[in-house]
Amino acid sequence: MMSRRSIRKYKPQAVNRDTMQIILNCGINAPNGQNKQSWEIRVVDNPEFINGITEVYKKQNPKAAEDPNFRNMFRNASTVVFIANDKSYDLSQIDCGLLGENMILSAWSMGIGSCCLGGPTRFMTSTPEAAEYLKKLDIPEGYQLLYCIAFGYPDETPSAKPRNAEKIRFID
Q1: How far is 129 from 161, CA to CA, in rounded Å?
Q2: Over the stretch 49-107, which tens digit does the pLDDT of each residue have?
Q3: Are 146 and 83 spatial neighbours (Cβ–Cβ below 8 Å)?
Q4: Is the whole-model pTM more than 0.85?
Q5: What is the 3-state secondary structure of 48-116?
Q6: Which of 17-20's residues contact partners 24+ apart within 8 Å by CB, and which partners?
C-alpha cells in the first residue's frame, strides 16, 4: 500500500476486461453502509467514447491540446471507471470512496496504475456539449456522477510526496 502512487502516464496497452473484472469485484466487495451498495459503476474502454469526449474537452480547453503528450482527458489512460453515488443516501459518497480505494489498491497489486479524477466528471456534468457522453453512461435516476478512475499500465515511477504527520493527533 505504501508503494502505490497516482499514475499520470500510461503505456498504450489497454487493461483487458478479465483483469478489470477482478478489479471491479474487489471494488464492489468494499465495506458499505448497511450493505446498500449505493453506487453505480460504468467501465469505458471504448476508444471512440474516450476520444469523442476528449474532442469536446479540447474545444472547451484548447490549451490542453497544446501539450504534445496529451492524448485524452483521462491522463491518457485506455480504461476509465466512472462511479456514481445515490443522492438519496447521505453516506453514499463514503461508500463510493471505499469502493474506489479497493479498486485502486487491487489494481496496484496486479501492476496496474490508476489515478482518481474529479475534473473529467465535473466537465461532463457541467458542460452542455458533453451531455451526449454523460447520457451514454446511462446513470440511473437518483444517482449522480461523482468521480472517475483512470486505469492503465504505468509509464512512470513517481516518488512519494511528503505527508504532514502533524495532522494526526491522538485525543485523550
Answers
A1: 36
A2: 999 999 999 999 999 889 888 999 999 999 999 999 999 999 999 999 999 999 999 99
A3: yes
A4: yes
A5: HHHHHHHHHHHHHCCCHHHCCCCCCCCCCCCEEEEEEEECCCCCHHHHHHHHHHHHHHHHHHCCCEEEE
A6: 17/45, 19/110, 19/112, 20/45, 20/79, 20/81, 20/151
